[in-house]
Each structure stands twice: as structure tokens, then as C-alpha cells.
Design a protein that fits this description.
mainly alpha
Length: 580
């Protein structure tokens, strides 16, 4: 078996590419779950982990702002213009012959953006003590000192990941999703190495060095496939390069939008730092768990569809653009809805299995489970946002998603502050704090807990995600009409098919919910729920019963999405061929 051919192989279509990305993300997410379990077992949800998550927020701000927020959105469409590759689905593993200007364009981007990141991280390294005090006003002096140390170490991460994401953009264009998809797996592996080996040797700062190690592995795993594309690196420091001008122009509005989003996360961290100790950790644990399906399905489909959508729009193949977008939407909804149902009904079991170890106590378990249950209502919306956003990017419109993102962020901030205040002080003249706490606790099944203000944060984030997804959906056809001059009549037909598919999915999900609920109660009466084995058995049986019922009803209703997935698997769309 030639590993190089495996890493270099191209995927055949969007669904196959999405499954490659989703499968790899699933492996990465499993490592992410292991990472969180190791963190929970070693630290619980205490002030040390609050420090780590707060310190991580600043380098992540840079990464999300400059790289995923701006560069990733702008690089691939411009790269498509320079390469204009017509044989994107060529299964050949031979090196690519780059058109004139293509290599200089990528070299210019690599050189200039590396320099920008280096300068940015250097300046922030100097200003770290001031920044940390601003984002965690509730921390003690000792916590702030440790947060400064961790933050400065982790500033190496966005620099390395910036280079790695440019490499990823090239691999995505050439449909080499396997190598690209392995990168997050190695990123989490680096963090796990930090927990297991660095922390025992050097303490809490070992977590930060684990993040740096993960970033380095994220880059190194992609280098072989990147090199085989025929690319040769030669530094070009030329900020007036035409491609860089286009990229910067597209980046500016997107960076503003991402700055708003990441500022929102920083603001949420600031709020959580003023709450009971462990609130930052609880929110991050729940957010990481809900990100599992969002990343595995939502981001995977968005990443897989983006190159084709960009090519279709650039070549004015509008009907193909609409077809590919709606096929991805239907398949994504078909996959994400049952996961949302399982996460809602099995929230407590999931948290107990993933985090219920070592120093992670019962109070933290209940608060995290309640937060995860709230997130479950917004998982569908959160999963649609990446694909809808990239649809706008394919049209070279970064402004609309930015405006929508700013609006969603404003709603999130307003709700976060208001709901935390209500849970902390009540509604003067209407309901006392104790009455509100009692009602919310009963609804979320966290009776007996007095400090539950942290649950306001996932409520705000969930509502803002729904708002963002809906607004993007309503604005997209208007933008298509504005840019293409017509909606090609195919949009209305596609919407009709989407609604028909959604009705079938709703029926499947409703019956699935009943099956899961009944299974939980039946199995719970026969196993000892105080043990790991008992919780695992209840979760496995209920989850499997629910999924089988969902698939069975989908089969009876002749779901096109189920048929497409089955066809992809049968045709070995995901299997790696080494004989071609």
C-alpha cells in the first residue's frame, strides 16, 4: 500500500468529499472528546481550567480574525481565478502543471501573510498583560499572571496555523481532502500529548505547549500532498501583487464580521469570569460537545462544497451552483437533525460518559448537560451557517455575511447580559430571583443548584445562531438575482424539493424522538445508572434504537438523501483506491 498515493488522491464529488472531511473530523472529534475527558479528569471545572480557556481565547481571536475569518474566505476564490482548473475531478495522481502566475500568487500570499501574523502576534505578546486584565475582570492576580504566561506561549499557534491554512486552501482546490482533513486530528493529538506528558513535567503551561505542538502537526501532515501538487516555495514579499490586493479587498469586511464574532466570545468569557468558579470551563465543555455535530456535518459539507460552488459561479454555471447548493443543504439537514435529537434526549448521558471522571463533579455535570440541551435546539442553524456563508463567498460577497454576523453578535451580547442579570437578580416588580431560578431549574432539570447563571450564555448563543441562519437564507436568493440577473427558475424548484425533503425528515425525527424517549425509560429500569457501564448501555441502546428507527422511516418514505448516501458508499466514494 502506497501511503503517498492515499494522501494525494482526489475525491470524486461533493458528497464523497464531505464524507471524507466528516469522517476525518469525526476522528478528530473523538480525540477532542478524549482531550476534554483528560482535562476534566485532571482539572475538573476549576479555576485552573478557567485560566486555560481564557488564555486560549486571545490567540484564537487572531486565528479566527486573520486566517479563518479573512484569508480562508478570500484565498480559494482568487486561487480559482488564477488556476481556472478544468480537470478538478481528474483522478490522476500526477503532479499538477501550474499556470503562469499561480505559484507566484501562492508564494506571495504565504510570505506576506506570514509576516503580517508574525508582527501581529509580536505586538500582542507585548500587550498581553493589559489584554488579559480586560477580558477576565473577575480573575484574581494569580490567575491573571498564569493566563499571561499561557497566552504568550500559545501565540506561536496562529502563526503556524496561518501557514497551514494557506496550504489547506490549495489542497481543497485540488480536491485532496484527505490530507487536509487529517490536519485537525493531529492538532488534537498535539494537545493530548500536552495533557499527558507536558503537564506532569511543567505544570499548567504544558497545556499551552500542547496547543503549539498540535499546530505544528497540523501543518506537517499536509506538506507531502502540498509538495506533490507541483508547488515550489520561493519567498515573494510583494504586497502590491494583484492577487493580494483582491484578497485584502475581500478580507476586510469578513475580518470585521469575524472580529465581531470573536469579540463576542471574548465578551462571553469576560461575563463568565465574574460568575461562580468553573463557569468558563462549563460553557466551553458544552460548546465543544455541540460543536461535534456542527463541525462533523455542517463544516464538512461547507468545506467540501465550497470549491465546486466557487468554480460554478466563476464559470457562470448558475444552474449547477443552485443544484449543488441545495443537494448539500438537503443531505446536511438529513444528517444533522437526528444528531440534534440524540443530543437533546441524551445530554446528561453524553456529559457523564465524556466528562464524568476524576475531579469533574456532579454539579458541573448537571450544568454542562443543561447547557448542552440548550445548544441542541440550535445545532441545525449553527450547521447551516458555514454552508450559507460560503455560498456568499462563492459569489465573492463577504459583506453580506459580515453584516448578518454583526447583527447576530449584537443579539448574542444583549441577550447574554440581560439573561445573566435576570438569573442573578430577578425581574424587579415581576418575579424574584428565587422564583426565576426555581422555574428555570425545573425546566432544565437542575433543581437544587443555586448559581445557574452560566446557562444564560448558551441560550443567547443558540438564539443568535437561529437568527443568523434565517437571515442568510432569506438574503441569498436576492444576492443571486443581483449578481446573475435572474434566479434561473431553478431556485423555486429547488426550494420545493427542499421543503418536501424537510417534511420527510421532520416525520422521521418525530418518531425517532418517541423511540429514544421510550428506550431511555425502559433501559433505565434495568441497569444501574450510578455506574459507567449502566450509563453507557442506556446511551448505546437508546441511541442505536433511535437511529435505526430514523433510517427505517426514511427508507419507507423513500428519502432521496438516504439513497444518495447509500449510493455513495456502494460506489466506494469514500474508499481509498491505491490501484488507480
Amino acid at each position: 500500500m502506497d501511503i503517498r498515493k492515499i494522501l494525494h488522491r482526489e475525491t470524486k464529488n461533493t458528497l464523497s468529499a464531505a464524507f471524507v472531511v466528516a469522517f476525518s473530523f469525526c476522528l478528530s472529534a473523538v480525540l477532542g472528546i478524549l482531550r476534554d475527558r483528560l482535562l476534566a479528569g485532571r482539572f475538573g471545572a476549576d479555576e485552573n481550567l478557567d485560566v486555560y480557556f481564557a488564555a486560549f481565547r486571545i490567540p484564537d481571536f487572531i486565528y479566527g480574525l486573520v486566517i479563518t475569518g479573512g484569508l480562508t474566505a478570500a484565498f480559494l476564490p482568487i486561487l480559482s481565478e488564477y488556476l481556472n482548473r478544468t480537470d478538478a475531478n481528474d483522478s490522476s495522481n500526477s503532479p499538477v502543471i501550474w499556470p503562469d502566475g499561480g505559484q507566484s500568487m501562492v508564494n506571495g500570499v504565504l510570505t506576506c501573510f506570514s509576516l503580517v501574523l508574525l508582527i501581529s502576534c509580536g505586538l500582542l505578546f507585548i500587550l498581553t498583560p493589559i489584554i488579559v486584565r480586560l477580558i477576565v475582570p473577575g480573575f484574581s492576580d494569580s490567575q491573571i499572571s498564569m493566563a499571561v504566561i499561557l497566552t504568550r506561549i500559545m501565540f506561536f499557534s496562529p502563526l503556524i496555523l496561518g501557514i497551514s491554512n494557506i496550504v489547506s486552501g490549495v489542497l481543497q482546490y485540488f480536491n485532496r481532502f484527505l490530507s487536509y482533513s487529517l490536519a485537525p486530528i493531529f492538532y488534537n493529538l498535539g494537545i493530548i500529548i500536552g495533557i499527558l506528558f507536558f503537564v506532569p513535567l511543567i505544570g499548567l503551561s504544558g497545556l499551552a505547549w500542547g496547543v503549539v505542538a498540535g499546530a505544528l502537526l497540523h501543518l506537517l501532515i499536509q506538506i507531502p500532498a502540498f509538495s506533490s501538487s507541483g508547488f515550489h516555495f520561493a519567498p515573494i514579499l510583494k504586497f502590491n501583487h494583484p492577487a493580494l490586493k483582491k484578497i485584502f479587498k475581500m478580507m476586510v469586511p469578513r475580518i470585521i464580521g469575524q472580529a465581531s464574532y470573536h469579540f463576542n466570545l471574548v465578551f462571553v468569557t469576560a461575563i463568565a469570569s465574574t460568575l461562580v468558579s468553573g463557569s468558563i470551563a462549563v460553557f466551553n465543555y458544552a460548546n465543544n460537545l455541540q460543536w461535534f455535530p456542527v463541525g462533523m456535518i455542517g463544516v464538512s459539507f461547507a468545506v467540501a462544497a465550497f470549491p465546486d460552488l466557487s468554480r460554478y459561479w466563476a464559470s457562470r454555471r448558475y444552474d449547477d451552483f443552485i443544484r449543488d447548493l441545495f443537494v448539500s443543504l438537503k443531505q446536511m439537514i438529513f444528517l444533522i437533525v437526528p444528531v440534534s435529537v440524540l443530543m437533546l434526549f441524551l445530554r446528561a448521558q453524553i456529559v457523564r460518559l465524556v466528562l464524568g471522571t476524576g475531579r469533574f463533579g456532579w454539579m458541573e455535570t448537571r450544568l454542562t448537560a443543561a447547557s448542552l440541551g440548550i445548544f441542541a435546539f440550535g445545532i441545525l442553524a449553527a450547521s447551516l451557517i458555514p454552508l450559507l456563508t460560503r455560498a456568499f463567498f462563492s459569489l465573492k460577497d463577504t459583506r453580506t455575511p459580515v453584516i448578518v454576523s454583526i447583527g447576530a453578535t449584537a443579539i448574542n451580547l444583549l441577550l447574554s447580559v440581560s439573561l445573566v442579570k435576570i438569573l442573578a437578580a430577578g425581574l424587579d416588580g415581576f418575579l424574584s430571583r428565587n422564583e426565576i431560578i426555581a422555574s428555570v431549574s425545573a425546566f432544565l432539570r437542575i433543581d437544587g443548584l443555586d448559581h445557574i447563571e452560566v446557562v444564560a450564555l448558551p441560550v443567547a448563543l443558540m438564539i443568535s445562531s437561529v437568527f443568523q441562519a434565517l437571515l442568510l437564507w432569506f438574503l441569498l436568493p436576492r444576492k443571486i438575482v443581483q449578481e446573475s440577473g435572474s434566479l434561473n427558475a431553478g431556485w423555486q424548484t429547488a426550494v420545493g424539493l427542499l421543503v418536501k425533503s424537510a417534511v420527510k425528515i421532520a416525520v422521521c425525527a418525530s418518531l425517532m424522538a418517541i423511540v429514544v424517549y421510550l428506550s431511555l425509560n425502559i433501559v433505565g429500569g434495568f441497569v444501574d445508572m450510578r455506574t459507567f457501564n449502566g450509563v453507557f448501555l442506556q446511551t448505546a441502546v437508546s441511541g442505536l434504537a433511535g437511529l435505526l428507527s430514523y433510517l427505517f422511516v426514511a427508507y419507507l418514505l423513500r428519502s432521496e438523501e438516504l439513497s444518495a448516501i447509500k449510493k455513495t458508499i456502494i460506489n466506494r466514494g469514500l474508499k481509498i483506491s491505491v490501484g488507480r
